[in-house]
Known about the structure:
The chain has about 280 residues and is of the alpha/beta class. It has 10 helices and 12 strands. Helix 4 (about 90-105) links the parallel strand 4 and strand 5.
Amino acid sequence: MTARNPSDLIMTDLRLAVVGAAGKMGRMLIRAIDAADGVVLAGALERPGSPALGKDAGVLAGLPAAGVPVLSDLDAAFAKADGILDFTMPAATLEFAALAARRGLIHVIGTTGLSDKDMAAIRAASQTATIVQSGNMSLGVNLLAALVRRAAAALGTDYDIEIVEMHHRHKVDAPSGTALLLGQAAAEGRTVNLAEASVRVRDGHTGPRQEGTIGFATLRGGSVVGDHSVIMAGPGERITLGHLAEDRSIFANGAVKAALWAREHGPGLYSMADVLGITE
């Protein structure tokens, strides 16, 4: 899509709504908005029945009162918003994407576990909404993906690719969105289809590893924010590229950065690689 001319914009603070406002990530997003220039909290949404309903979103996040109550009604919560920050569940994300499409809003999606069908619906919404979607919003992970893409392109299939990830015990999807993002980067580097090349489960007598496959290993436990390694094991050597997330604030800060970037671009489906200017 063609970028909007920044001079055509009214340069007031970008008004953002946070969904899942009472959760760990939601509160992190509220704090990231408070700390950033050029954005302001304009709405906070939670599920019906949440004990957070009616509370001030700023106070909920450990900040001074923001004058923004936590609501369960989408229309009311998004009434003053220019954009939505969304790290929720696939079904909810599709609902927010449809609303963003109707209103021409910015929609930053950090939700993981999205299916091909979900992504098709998001692409349809992006005809009238400016959507930035990524399995990981951090700068470091997206730089890592670019390195993985280049390394996979440079090395032949004599080098076996394995992606190892570990997250906290409460994570519900596997492999993680970040692991899949890295797997997709490796597949693009090799010009293969990830769905056809990936191996996600090994159990029992599996026989030798098939050449050219991209393996995934999923670990869960404790309070790990996110550890990812891409191992390229070749004859006589191994190359390991990795990223360790130490604080969820990297994802929240990346989401705010994405929203500000999206403000200057027209409707379309973008990635964090677009936001960071590292597309190839």
